[in-house]
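Memo subject: From amino acid sequence to C-alpha cells
Keywords: amino acid chain, backbone geometry, C-alpha cells, three-dimensional fold.
Body of memo: The sequence and its C-alpha cells, given next.
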Amino acid sequence: MSRIEVPIEKAYRLINHGACPLVSTRDGVRRNVAPINWTIPISDDPPLVLCAVGEGCFTDELLKASGEFALNVVGESLAPALLHCGKRSGRNGDKFSSAGLTPVPCASIRPPRVAEAFGHVECRVTATHPYEGVTLYVGRVVHAEVEEGFMDEGFLRPEKARTIHHLGSGRFAVADRLLVVPREK
C-alpha cells in the first residue's frame, strides 16, 4: 500500500484524537469555558493531567490568575456547543450563556463545571511549563464525578458516553463501542 506525506504542521492530527473536554476556569469575577483538545492524563499516582493552552488566550489568563480548572467531558450532543466555544473568546462575552451551557459549582475548586457534561475532573495547577506559543499546565486531580450509568467496572462506557474526538477543522470522531483485547498469558 502506498503512503502519502503529511505536512508537519498537521502531523498532530494523526495522534491527537482523544476526547475533547470543555475546560472551565474562573478568576474570582470572570469565568470561561473553552475546548482544549490538547489535554492528557500523565500519571495515575499521583493523579495528574496536562493541558496545553495557547499563550495569552483568555483561558490562559484565568488559569494564571486562579490555578484551578475543570475538565468537562462531553458527548456527541454537545459538539455544537463545543465548536461554538472554540470560535469565540470569553473576553467578548459569557460563552456559557451564548453556547447554552449551565455553569454549576464544583465540589473542590472555584471554577464552575458544565451541568450538561456527563462527567468532570477538578484540578489544581501544580506546575506550569511555558513553551513557544503555549503553556503546559500540570493539574493534580482533586475530585471527579460522572453520571450514574456512564462507567462500568471503573471504565467509561463508550456506547453511552459517545465522547467526541477533535480531528481538526470542525471534524470530530465519536467513540461509541468498546474493544477488549484479551491479555497475553
